Amino acid sequence: MRKFLLIGCLLAALVLTSCEQSTSGEIEAAPRVANPKADVSVTADVPFGTGVMLSTTTEGALIYYTLNDETVPTSGAERLYTEGKLVSLGNTEGEVTLRAIAVKPGWGNSDTEIWTYKVTSTAVPVPTV
């Protein structure tokens, strides 16, 4: 019986990232972290110096992000988001891509969220959500 539970957990881990054995002996998928949100969530033209705040509704989760990088952020990413701080989109005209993922030990990672902004010197500030 244990052999089948182990195989089931391994298969679930491949598909769901993580799993746990319940007290009844059944394999259960670990909960998933809620996707990160950006307070400037619309894909829009934004003025120089615009900053974006990130959040997730999963208590205790950490958010990792990348800027103008094709890589998917991971828990090993260089940029760990600090709650309440703004992620600067910069002061250079052009397209900026922000990618973020939320993680929590023992939970399945969130999906990667992607926002694309066009930074310009003439854009009108975008209201935050």
Keywords summarizing the entry:
1 helix, 129 residues, mainly beta, 12% helix, two-stranded antiparallel ribbon, disordered N terminus, 32% strand, 4-stranded mixed beta sheet
Total helix count?
Answer: 1
Envelope shape: elongated
> Which band does the percent of strand residues land in?
25-35%
Q: Which regions are unreliable across 5 or more consecutive residues at pLDDT < 50?
A: 1-18
Rg, rounded, reads 19 Å
Please report the total strand number as a whole number: 10
Helix and strand sequence = HEEEEEEEEEE
| Biggest pleated sheet | 4 strands, mixed
Mean pLDDT level: 80
Question: What fraction, in percent, of the residue positions are helical?
Answer: 10-25%
Question: What is the SS-derived class?
Answer: mainly beta
**Neighbour order of strands in the largest sheet:** 4-10-9-7
Your description of this structure?
Helices cover 12% and strands 32% of the residues. It is mainly beta and 129 residues long.
